[in-house]
Backbone:
């Protein structure tokens, strides 16, 4: 980490929203992010664009669908387009050739849409091992998010197994802690999840809750709202 005492905007706190899969509910989530001027990192599976998600009906009452490739650039304008593999297999124990294929194909499709190299990755199903971590790094990614909540605000130490702070459904108590935090040390809060979960319409997983969560964290002078890729670039002094 560079020998600095604050983030680019002078803050010592940072907030990252990291959301997976690239389903149509992202449209609503992006609207909320834009409304409250926060930044999202969206981890996409390019091999699943426009495909149906029949299993979602059991959770939300209706069949789900992935976004179309043609809408990616406009939808995520101002946010980070990141990788979640080509077709979403668990990475732990996957053979080397398939791992390389999953990483390369997703980059090949998403990089031209983004207009720059992909920096961020999120492990599908939260599944990874040492081999996966090595290949993700070799593929050129600067960071890879897990689903292992730390429940703290410490900076990541292993960028290829970046444990987030908390899933959005458990985030409000920690948000209150973070807003009250007064420290000269750099910290970060990474909230993760899937936008379709807000369609469950249950406590801590509904769209009113989503808006309250985002609004509560937004518009704070002592917070840097940043994507995962930009955050790691800062830590590495790039």
Residues:
């Amino acid at each position: 980490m560079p020998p600095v005492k604050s983030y680019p905007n002078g803050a010592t706190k940072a907030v990252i929203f990291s959301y997976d899969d690239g389903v149509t509910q992202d449209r609503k989530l992006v609207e909320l992010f834009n409304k409250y001027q926060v930044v999202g990192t969206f981890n996409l599976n390019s091999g699943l664009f426009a495909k149906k998600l029949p299993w979602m009906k059991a959770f939300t009452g209706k069949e789900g669908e992935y976004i179309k490739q043609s809408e990616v650039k406009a939808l995520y304008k101002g946010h980070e387009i990141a990788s979640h593999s080509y077709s979403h297999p668990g990475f732990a124990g996957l053979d080397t050739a398939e791992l390389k294929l999953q990483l390369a194909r997703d980059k090949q499709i998403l990089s031209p849409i983004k207009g720059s190299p992909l920096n961020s990755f999120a492990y599908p199903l939260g599944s990874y091992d040492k081999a996966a971590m090595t290949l993700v790094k070799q593929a050129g990614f600067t960071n890879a998010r897990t689903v292992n909540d730390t429940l703290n605000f410490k900076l990541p130490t292993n960028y290829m197994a970046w444990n987030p702070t908390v899933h959005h459904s458990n985030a409000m108590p920690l948000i209150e802690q973070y807003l009250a935090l007064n420290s000269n040390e750099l910290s970060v809060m990474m909230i993760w999840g899937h936008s379709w979960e807000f369609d469950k319409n249950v406590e801590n997983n509904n769209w009113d809750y989503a808006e309250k969560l985002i609004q509560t964290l937004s518009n704070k002078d002592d917070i840097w709202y940043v994507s995962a890729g930009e955050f790691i670039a800062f830590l590495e002094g790039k």
